[in-house]
Amino acid sequence: MTPLLEIRNVSHQFGDHSALTNVSFSVEQGDILGIIGRSGAGKSTLLRCLCALQKPTEGEILLNGADLVSLPERALVLERRRIGLVFQHFNLLNSRTVAANIALPLEISGIPSSRRRARVKELIEIVGLEGHENKRPSQLSGGQKQRVGIARALATEPVLLLCDEATSALDPETTASVLDLLAEINRRLGLTIILITHEMDVVRRFARRVVVLEHGKVVENSPVVTLLSDPSRNENIAHLFPDTLIQIPSDQKAYLQTDPFPASEVLLRLGDTAASLPSALLSELGRNFGADIRLLNGGITQVGGRNIMDMIIRLPVFSPEIQMFLKNRCQTVEVLGYVPSDR
Ligand SMILES: Nc1ncnc2c1ncn2[C@@H]1O[C@H](COP(=O)(O)OP(=O)(O)OP(=O)(O)O)[C@@H](O)[C@H]1O
């Protein structure tokens, strides 16, 4: 299947400074990709190239096969409408109401007012802002403002949502609720999402794949669970994000025991699992052990005819009961990493 977005050998120079060098990766339809890097790594430059606000010095950016770099300006205007943008500081107009902010891209696209009203109503429901339609942005909390920003980005039914540090201005609790909303939008609408961030925690909680940028180059491009479950790769990028990586236990058997293990998140690898989907196993876990258990990330791969499921779950404590439950359902249970409860 052709990827929704394909970045091919993209380089960008500012004078004699290379901001991006030979960047290549692709994004499948319906995926959630995190692009992470330290300050100056090239994230903003890449973002401007991805949303066709800037042409890279070299390379191709194919959206559904159309190269944004070589398209004439008139065609580009139409392609840009297929990419929704969510900003760190929301970029809302306080002179307009919530509903009018969301309607803005529809006005610009020349959608008639009756269709605009119906679409805005739909969008308000998607982002959970019923009752706030007539407020001004200054009357909203940060999280509510970002919901308006997300609704506005969805207005023209984009095929790709690009989020630029969309949670960096928010506190941890609001960050979690905005990430939950984006995950829900990904599930409900099947929308492909790219989230640019400098926070590994956000990637771990939300993205399925991650591209790590360092000095304008891609130094890692893999599923998040693979990155977190491979100690050698983990070490490769540990220096970038020293506080946020899941620690790898030296003897994982020690954690599969009868004592409660003080982890608030665990990265598990389950083998030959009877559950067909991570979400099925998760809802069983939720039903049996409480609502606080959440899947942060997960996916199944086939290795030599066996089903291997890597999943990160958040839980109050990795209790003996949960460990037994998993052992009863899966032939093998490995703890690949964890975040200690006290962090
Ligand atoms: N207009 C410009 N002119 C010259 N150099 C630039 C320009 N914009 C960015 N750069 C340089 O290109 C490199 C990549 O910058 P970029 O803003 O893309 O990084 P970033 O990862 O987004 O950083 P941050 O997280 O701090 O926003 C940096 O070394 C930066 O100094």
From TrEMBL:
InterPro entries: AAA+_ATPase, ABC_transporter-like_ATP-bd, ABC_transporter-like_CS, ACT-like_dom_sf, MetN_ABC_transporter-like, P-loop_NTPase. GO terms for cellular component: plasma membrane. Keywords: Amino-acid transport, ATP-binding, Cell membrane, Membrane, Nucleotide-binding, Translocase, Transport. Transmembrane segments: none annotated. It comes from the Bacteria. One of its GO terms (molecular function) is ATP binding. Residues 5-240 form the ABC transporter domain. GO terms for biological process: amino acid transport. Belongs to the ABC transporter superfamily. Part of the ABC transporter FtsEX involved in cellular division. Important for assembly or stability of the septal ring. PANTHER family: AMINO ACID IMPORT ATP-BINDING PROTEIN, METHIONINE IMPORT ATP-BINDING PROTEIN METN. This is Cell division ATP-binding protein FtsE. The gene is metN.
